[in-house]
Amino acid sequence: MTQGEISVQRISTAIRDDIVSGTLIPGSRLVEDILATRYGVSRVPVREALRTLQSEGFVTARRHAGACVAAPTAQEAADLLDLRALLEPMGAARAAARRTDAQLKVLRGVVRLGRERAHRDCPGDLPRLDGWFHETLARAAGNPGLTALLTQVRRKIDWMYVVERPARYAETWDDHGAVLDAVARGDAEAARALMASHVARSLPAYRPRHRQTAARPGPRPVGSGRVRSAQGA
């Protein structure tokens, strides 16, 4: 990977993170000069990063407005949850057949930590550990295309939804443990079924983060705000 490609990847990550966190709100304009100043780079990697994010669905190009943060409709948001319900069980089944010993070791460590935090009612680390579990499981599927799609879907769900605190965190981590056991013994069908059940049980906890309607809001320019370097983003 060249230095230029690394720079584009870094800026793509920084802008995507700001979109997911809500720093850049849906419908707001993404002006190259302002973004270049914000992230401390030239316009060239910003322009390429915006093209990457447009292909992922985080950015849209509008006539007379240029690049804007995408403003998903309620239907598009709902479709993401449906897509997750299809892809996550598939990924778990593939992981049961293709996971490496190193990936299995990481998954066991994450589940152990998650269960410890859940039983001690220490929720602060649990969202990060949950993401780590699902990301490692996606990589364990051994299919770069599927892994990339799963990662993109999860990022967009994080952007569009807030997950309400479950009544019992331990049940979520018991689900993760059951999926892990199936993956460890190479039982693809059990891994698929257990992940499907886990995803279905989690759906009621998702609440839209933004007001989504069929009509797209008009663009608002992104303010220059605090200048931030994208190094390490």
TrEMBL record:
The keyword tRNA-binding does not apply. Keywords: DNA-binding, Transcription, Transcription regulation. Pfam families: FCD, GntR. It comes from the Bacteria. SMART domains: FCD (SM00895), HTH_GNTR (SM00345). Residues 205-233 are annotated as: Disordered. Residues 5-72 form the HTH gntR-type domain. InterPro entries: GntR_C, TF_FadR/GntR_C, Tscrpt_reg_HTH_GntR, WH-like_DNA-bd_sf, WH_DNA-bd_sf. This is GntR family transcriptional regulator. It comes from Streptomyces catenulae.
